[in-house]
Amino acid sequence: MLADPVDGAFDISSEESEAGAMDGLDLWKKEIEDALTVMGGLQARQARVLADHAEWLQAHDRAMAEAAERGARLDERIEKLVSGIGEFMRRNG
After folding, report:
1. Are 3 and 9 within 8 A, CB to CB?
2. Measured between alpha carbons, how far is 1 from 76 in angstroms, rounded to an integer?
3. pLDDT in tens, 49-61
């Protein structure tokens, strides 16, 4: 007994013609080709998604680096301001 991926199962008996057996093989071949086509499409889509994500990740990393740089510059400005206020307080206080 051979399993039929569409109908569940069928039995190729000795009474069945060779043409009937070929029809079954052709059906399986067609279904395998269809499955390979679908898998190829899914792989291509996944490759595009991964490439898009890699681009997004690079942009995100650049944005995070820029934000860290801006934060460091802001920290320097705050430090200078606090130092200036402290100096003012020492002189006038």
Report:
1. yes
2. 80
3. 999 999 999 999 9
* Distance between CA atoms of residues 51 and 14, nearest Å: 54
Token output for 20? 């009937």
Q: CB-side exposure of 88: number of CA atoms within 13 Å?
A: 6
Please give the model's pTM, rounded to 2 decimal places: 0.54
Give the chain's radius of gyration (CA, Å): 35
SS (H, E, C) the chain: CEEECCCEEECCCCCCCHHHHHHHHHHHHHHHHHHHHHHHHHHHHHHHHHHHHHHHHHHHHHHHHHHHHHHHHHHHHHHHHHHHHHHHHHHHC
Confidence band for 24, pLDDT divided at 50, 70 and 90? confident
